[in-house]
Amino acid sequence: MTPPSRHITLKDLARELGVSTASVSNAFNRPDQLSPRLRERILSEAQRLGYQGPDARARTLRTGRSRIIAVVLAETLTYSLNDAVSSELLTGIAEVLDDHGHTLLLLSGRQPGSRQTSGTASMADGFIVYGLMPSAMLLNELPAQRPLVAVDFNIDGQPMVHIDNEPASHAIACYALATPPRRIGVLALRLTETPCNGRVTEEQPWLTAERTITRARLDGFHRAFEEHGIDPAAVPVWNIEENTHDICAPVIASILDLPDDERPDLLLCMSDRIALTALTLAEQRGLRIPEDLRLTGFDGIAEGQYRSPRLTTVRQDSTEKGRITARMILGLVPAEPSLLATELIVGESCPYRVTFGLTNPATQSLRCTANLGGNGAGRRPLGGVIDRVIEDHADNPLNLDIA
Amino acid sequence: MTPPSRHITLKDLARELGVSTASVSNAFNRPDQLSPRLRERILSEAQRLGYQGPDARARTLRTGRSRIIAVVLAETLTYSLNDAVSSELLTGIAEVLDDHGHTLLLLSGRQPGSRQTSGTASMADGFIVYGLMPSAMLLNELPAQRPLVAVDFNIDGQPMVHIDNEPASHAIACYALATPPRRIGVLALRLTETPCNGRVTEEQPWLTAERTITRARLDGFHRAFEEHGIDPAAVPVWNIEENTHDICAPVIASILDLPDDERPDLLLCMSDRIALTALTLAEQRGLRIPEDLRLTGFDGIAEGQYRSPRLTTVRQDSTEKGRITARMILGLVPAEPSLLATELIVGESCPYRVTFGLTNPATQSLRCTANLGGNGAGRRPLGGVIDRVIEDHADNPLNLDIA
DNA sequence: CTGAAAGCGCTTACAG
DNA sequence: CTGAAAGCGCTTACAG
């Protein structure tokens, strides 16, 4: 009958039914607080009148809970949404939030934070902060006293979820050095305090390990170099400002275009995106992988395994990282520092032993799990060894022995 | 002094300052409504007392506007966040929202929509619905009377943003058929009404063009076939259920493993992901591209252009699609059906003329812009021709003449 | 099991 | 330019 003139509210519905607003509210929120019969009557009448249920805006104000969790991304949304690692993290976060009736609000820390946007931030019940913020500004604009979890970098006094960057980097470098290279190159990601897209010179100050995962990865490489009698200072480092093909390409081109006697034959890359770009550019130049150039990545993104040659890399389970973070922000697990294990994936871009003329490169593959500590083991990365080897091909047993 | 016992509100601040709540509100929201001196006093006192500004939850209830736009994704969030095309769409949406002080809430249409999640949906000021919903259920749960824009599929009575699928598919098929293939295969994406991951049989009913972009793409292929004297019914169609490597791979493997005299030498794929999977599997089998197998994609994602051979494909500007959609939902442009143009990108996976033994495959590349109608040209795809050719390499002029 | 009432924190006509 | 007051739509003790 009465077509909803404009907008029907809980109060209207209660009046229409001749019951109290409390009963209508309970019909939707607390079935145990009223008789099934009344509840049924309320719900069916609601449907008939086109009442969709209590307004989230009012519920939020009243209860103080919006069921929204904000993810504050250090990078631009453009980057974060198109990067495999951030996407996986968001996937894990979204999965857990969804399972618990929460939704995901995306915020970017890159723009200064117009008052409007940071005002909206105060809708969220909690905050997940991913990656190093360009400035502390945005963090200050976040409402205090609400739960916050940091991912991949440290905020004083806040719980943190991260991976064992230093041991993982150490492990993959040791693995690669098992076949002695002639010349090594390191490709770092946002290592320097001031932007630098290219060869890093001695005088450039580096970010501290507290502030960037890159530093911890470099520390792992350097420890491996020292253990193999290589002077870390003698290994050139190139820096990449953003983990995208377009930014990587010129730096890598400059390396690959070096004369044969200066070009590294082993590139340790701090991300799979960097390694994949190097792979593409190397192929374009007719360089043979792995004979002329060996490459290692970091992250273990799908794209690196769905092509030939596959990347040798460290796999981090970003999805699981997201899940843990989300559980923490929802209070499903204690908000304690959490450290995730990583896994060494051996592909053809840097095989265990470089063998020429293999007919089927797949037989060179194996997968190693680096059980380096795992969750909740404290804030500091643990030392550890690769202690398990899973072979893809039983007919080609290999034993890795990497300290 | 008085450390904020728990939580300071606008009212507290007004009392502390001896001004009305209206003045405090105006200090934050409407600078022109009070003297600069008073505003200054209010803002500095706010800062001193740790008042972060008006609470978004209360503002939202009072004003009826949350500055949140929800994107309802037909696929799971896992898929959408990891798929290049959806990511680009979200990127475009986020960019415009951000510029206008709005934020992005992600919802998935895949799960039935627990009451909690769909309750939260009612926070949003507007809805962007992307892709065909598995059921109409979720749409009904969305609050009526709030703006809604559909992307890539039709909801009766709602504005829609989409691309010219049929003409674009027609164009790329005509282009590929310029070199006569021996056998063609079509790889479709979610074409059938009931799930089918593999060869499509005659009796399987197809979704209508209204409901899926796939159908329009197939129609474009078929028109091209007919124009080239090929009976569409004689061209086999394989269906892919999800646009991911893992789901594509077995279907494509089954095609590539056909005997030489049954295997297609031209695969028209409805997405770049499908084409890239085919490329990888073909390479693993030692098939030469393009001599043994030519491939075309659809979408123009970066991954298809950052490898060798590059994909021949139709580029759609998903980012721009997102921008237009976001402007529409914010009311910055009229909420009218919008049709975006696409572009034919010619890579080495299906070159213009198949020439054997080219030393530099890059010289075979060119790029064609298919100006097929553009924005706001009405709800139905327009016919049209590729009317502009941009050459990557001036030393290798090519003229395309595709009707 | 049900109903009357307070109040979440804000914005906005409106009167001064 | 400023202040007093209503009310956005709901939830939740609390009394019955």
UniProtKB/TrEMBL annotation, chains A, B:
Residues 8-63 form the HTH lacI-type domain. InterPro entries: HTH_LacI (IPR000843), LacI/GalR-like_sensor (IPR046335), Lambda_DNA-bd_dom_sf (IPR010982), Peripla_BP_I (IPR028082). It comes from the Bacteria. Keywords: DNA-binding, Transcription, Transcription regulation. GO terms for molecular function: DNA-binding transcription factor activity; transcription cis-regulatory region binding. This is DNA-binding transcriptional regulator, LacI/PurR family. The keyword Transcription regulation applies.
